Amino acid sequence: MTIIVDRFGRPAAAFPSAVAMSGTGILRLHDIEEDHYHGLNDYSVDHEKFRDGLWEADNVELVSVGIDIGSSGTQVVFSRIWLQRLSDNLSSRYVVVDREQLYQSPVSLTPYAKGLSIDAHALGHIIDDAYNEAQIDPGDVDTGAVILTGEALRRDNAHSIAHVLAHHGGEFVCTMAGHHIEAQLAAYGSGAAWASNERGERVLNIDIGGGTTKFAVIEGGRVL
Predict the structure, then answer these.
(1) Domain 58-177 -> CATH class
(2) H-type helices in the chain, by residue range?
(3) What is the pLDDT along the chain (224 residues), one digit of tens a residue?
(4) Domain span(s) for CATH 3.30.420.40 in the chain
(5) How buried is 214 (Cβ within 10 angstroms: 0-12 exposed, 13-18 middle, 19+ buried)?
């Protein structure tokens, strides 16, 4: 069966009876002579594949933002992600099949107010600047996450700060990452979990942050 992909390498349409036309089993759209191609299901190549209801139901494109507020540093990352529905057993579960980073802000010092609070006003400016630099409107963001870690998590107004930011940007996941979750995020984000699985070795990942240090032992791609 041939997998037909667009110029970005993403599946472009479902041609279930297509005959493999290359050794890789990958046929790119520009290789098809559109006036002459006919699959056994007679799916017209003139049809707008990306506007097909069935294709759109199984393939979802989202703009995502991640806001990381750490002990000493705050950073914002915008991404475009592609999700595809698993076809096994008519599953409704989607998996990420590709990701493109749209913008990564510079790391800013996490602003603190007097006492045990985060400076909400200064933090708001950091987030707004990231949206402006990325040229992305909050209304264009489909999903995202606000994660507070380390010393930032201990501040009295950390919980309200996360929810205000999430409300500002859309329906976000808000995570107050304690030491265990933060150690796992570092293990997977650094590539240590992938390395342990690829090499078949036990790996120790050490995350040295601005206020806390976490250790994670990983084996077979899983944090032990």
Answers:
(1) alpha beta
(2) 53-58, 120-134, 150-153, 158-169, 179-189, 192-199
(3) 444 444 445 554 443 333 333 344 444 444 444 444 444 444 444 445 555 566 667 788 899 999 989 888 999 999 999 988 876 656 677 888 888 999 999 999 999 988 788 898 899 899 999 999 999 988 888 888 888 888 888 888 888 887 777 666 666 776 677 788 888 989 998 999 999 999 999 999 999 988 889 999 999 999 99
(4) 58-177
(5) buried
